[in-house]
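User: Structure with 4'-deoxy-4'-aminopyridoxal-5'-phosphate, tokens only please.
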Amino acid sequence: MSRLVPLRPDLTGLSGYHSAQVDVQVRLNTNESPLPPPDAWLEELRSELSRVDFNRYPDRDAHALRQALGEFHGVGPEEVFCAKGSNEVLQCLLLAYGGSGRCAALFEPTYALHRHIASLTATEVASIWRAADYSLDLNEADALVERVRPIITFLCSPNNPTGRAEPPEVVSHLLERAPGLVVVDEAYGQFAPTSALDLRRPERRGTSRLVVVRTFSKTWSMAACRLGYLVGDPEVVEACKSMALPYHLDAVTQMAGRLALRHVAAMEERVALVKEERGRICTALRELPVETWPSDANFVLFRPLKRSAKQVWNDLLEESVLVRDCSEWRGLSECLRVTVGTAKENTRFLTALRSSLGHASTKEHASTTEHAQTTERASTTERAQTTERAQTGKR
Ligand code: PMP
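Assistant:
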């Protein structure tokens, strides 16, 4: 293609990172929360909005938000950096520590944005492939970090799109071996049994090089707001602050995040519902002709065995169910990824999948059982909402 002005030569051929946004009834392709944020949060936000000085720039340091996040994690505000989504946090880290002549290490297949942002910041990428079960071979990981001496080693835990959380021993091991920052992307951290945050201790060797990245987009039901953050050493926080554009985090987002932290119980209820539904999807998938992997996140990876991923993806779309087609991503041949939705959405997905895989005969039985489960879950959701209303005095 002839261009008006030539692009940076190292970026030729690079395209943006997107997920198909099709107008469907059941959207299970981008790992968002299927439930809206709590009503009480929305009310508080509405009321505080009237106090925003819209003619003024926001607090450049997002101090109140960082203070609240610090309290939430038991650290000081100087150990927290906030940005517009965890993607911007990752970008600031790579701007500060990556760049020409420096290398980032990662373990494929993993979240594509780690490699993508590394390329945008002219950071070299060195990677190895995970095993067939998508676990990490530590001998191979050691050899990689020994060979390339990465300035940043990325781990994604739970790993998107494969689903498994990295055991704490793996994170500790890499902290021992990798010379630079070990950045653990915990966008789905609350769905997992362990967190790298528990490894951060001043007395533990190397843990000041540990950086944990989190987001409000998933568990906090706030993807529209674009808010992410990292917990790390104050030196890393300062470095990231100097990379961010002035006033990058607007006043409304700062406020939304600060207020969300008053609703931890509601967030935890949502996480519990998603985990319960994840269990139901995993059990159902095990009875179908698909290969599937265990998940510690709010999504499940699977590979249809009797029909191609593309055919199944299309069949689901015909039923107005959208999942993520990963079948052309390296290391994920013929794989699809489904985000855990509401009980009703998951039932729609499973019914459509059974029909696509020719398992419609079990459908009757399954849909009856699922109907009962859905009703049970709907009442659990209602109970959760009632508790929330009772707590806030709202009817
Ligand atoms: N990290 C991982 C592993 C993700 O899957 C995502 C979202 N797809 C992000 C970070 C970015 O999330 P956000 O920018 O919405 O915070």
